[in-house]
Design a protein that fits this description.
Blueprint lengths: L25 E5 L2 E4 L4 E4 L2 H4 L8 H11 L13 H13 L4 E7 L2 H18 L7 E5 L8 H4 L20 E3 L14 H14 L3 E6 L3 E2 L5 E2 L2 H14 L2 E5 L14 H4 L5 E4 L11 E6 H5 L20 H16 L2 H17 L2 H5 L3 E7 L2 E6 L8 H7 L2 E2 L6 E4 L7 H16 L8
Length: 434
């Protein structure tokens, strides 16, 4: 089980390159597993940062990509168009919450969020409210690693504190604390805190940014649909746009196609990425309502939306995204996700050992997402190597040991993941940490 890629020419993300051992080399994959050059086969418990929702080597997606490559690989959308981009825009309008009627493409989730924020500011300017030029975000939020996105991530516990002097300043409301299944009255305090910030600063707030129901990389905080509904009402009251970052939550991760559906809410702007293409290519979509779109219609060319990524609407990405959505709908993925959810709850939330372990703060499950939160990140030191010895690829971050499996993960594979997560707290309790 030796690493097989000793090169330092490749700079890896979130890694201290001086001390990190060479990374394992992946040479292929099928279903929920990827294969390494040394012959190992690992079940991917994270579906490659949550994007490979169909797993590896899905024949329909691979075939769609090859067919599109034979026709048209890329062309600019500046003054031109093509069928895959139009078809994907139509499909996204069809499946997203009602009222989202216009689609602006870009090439990653972070850029999709940058697009959303620029769209919100320009909207407010062109509606005669130029003082509304800042964002309102939530503590424990994560919206991406580009500079605009870093500025709206949690400024205290986030990973971007090194850049504090470089980033613009925005407003933050406390992270919601009421869990997903909280009673409506349990959300009152969270809503009051949000209202307080809006009352004080709404004159300069263009939009509220929110990862609905699941704050992903900020600690997998799972929150109430009641909070989402209240946030929609507050935004309407104070003339603030509501932006949903569904980069991680979109395409089934919370148990519905989009997290917004749990609350029955339509945001003014919604951002999609990750599962959009089934993980095959980087691509993102920023959707807007007719009201937002109308603010950019004018005889003045300067009122056009001032953004244009080179690879927006890439035909390869659009074509594979269309096939990904077709697979999702035709093969009852929501049913699969419900089955994954039931098994995750049975395996983790009903486990007496986890409930009694003093290191464990919480165990929670939402859709096809499960997390074991510990009090001290040091309690997870060595868990990645431990899991790999058991044939599982687990990559915890901070105090959170989690799984977001591919939707094609079989029951026996998911049990192997959950058994490994539990085994860390049983078998590795007194084992030496590397």
């Amino acid at each position: 089980m030796q690493p097989t890629s000793p090169s330092r020419t490749l700079w890896h993300p979130y890694a201290q390159m001086q001390t990190q051992p060479p990374a394992p080399q992946v040479v292929g994959g099928e279903g929920a597993r990827f294969h390494l050059a040394d012959g190992e086969s690992l079940i991917d418990a994270t579906c490659s940062w949550w994007c490979m929702i169909h797993g590896y080597g899905h024949p329909r997606l691979t075939r769609a990509l090859k067919e599109q490559a034979d026709q048209l690989c890329h062309v600019m959308l500046g003054g031109l168009t093509h069928e895959p981009a139009q078809a994907l825009a139509d499909a996204l309008v069809r499946v997203t919450p009602p009222g989202l009627e216009h689609v602006f493409f870009s090439d990653s989730g972070s850029v999709g969020m940058e697009v959303a924020m620029k769209m919100a500011v320009q909207y407010q300017v062109q509606r005669g409210r130029p003082s509304k030029h800042r964002m309102l975000s939530l503590m424990r939020a994560y919206h991406g690693d580009t500079s605009g996105c870093m500025a709206v991530c949690d400024p205290e516990e986030g990973m971007h504190s090194l850049f504090a002097g470089f980033l613009p300043t925005h407003h933050f409301a406390p992270a919601p604390t009421a869990p997903f299944d909280a009673a409506p009255e349990a959300v009152d305090g969270d809503i009051a805190a949000l209202r307080d910030v809006l009352e004080q600063h709404h004159q300069e707030i263009a939009a509220l940014l929110m990862e609905p129901l699941l704050q992903a990389a900020g600690g997998l905080n799972m929150t109430s649909p009641e909070y989402v509904r209240a946030a929609r009402a507050l935004c309407d009251e104070f003339g603030v746009l509501l932006i949903f970052d569904e980069v991680a939550t979109g395409f089934g991760r919370t148990g519905k196609l989009f997290a917004a559906e749990h609350a029955g809410v339509t945001p003014d702007i919604m951002v999609l990425s990750k599962g959009l293409t089934g993980g095959y290519l980087g691509h993102a979509a920023t959707l807007a309502t007719g009201e937002v779109f109308a603010a950019f219609l004018s005889d003045d060319p300067a009122h056009a939306f001032m953004h244009g990524p080179t690879f927006m609407g890439n035909p390869l990405a659009c074509r594979v995204a269309l096939e990904s959505l077709a697979v999702f709908e035709e093969e009852d993925y929501l049913g699969r996700i419900a089955a994954l959810n039931a098994l995750l709850r049975e395996e983790l939330m009903q486990d007496d050992v986890l409930r009694r372990d003093p290191r464990v703060v919480d165990v929670r499950v939402l859709g096809a997402t499960a997390v074991i939160e510990v009090a001290d990140a040091a309690d997870l030191d060595g868990v990645q190597a431990f899991a790999r010895r058991r044939g599982i690829w687990l990559r915890p971050f901070g105090r959170w040991l989690y799984t977001m499996p591919a939707y094609v993960t079989r029951d026996d594979e998911l049990r192997a993941i959950t058994t490994t997560m539990k085994a860390w707290f049983r078998e590795a309790r007194d084992a030496p940490r590397p």
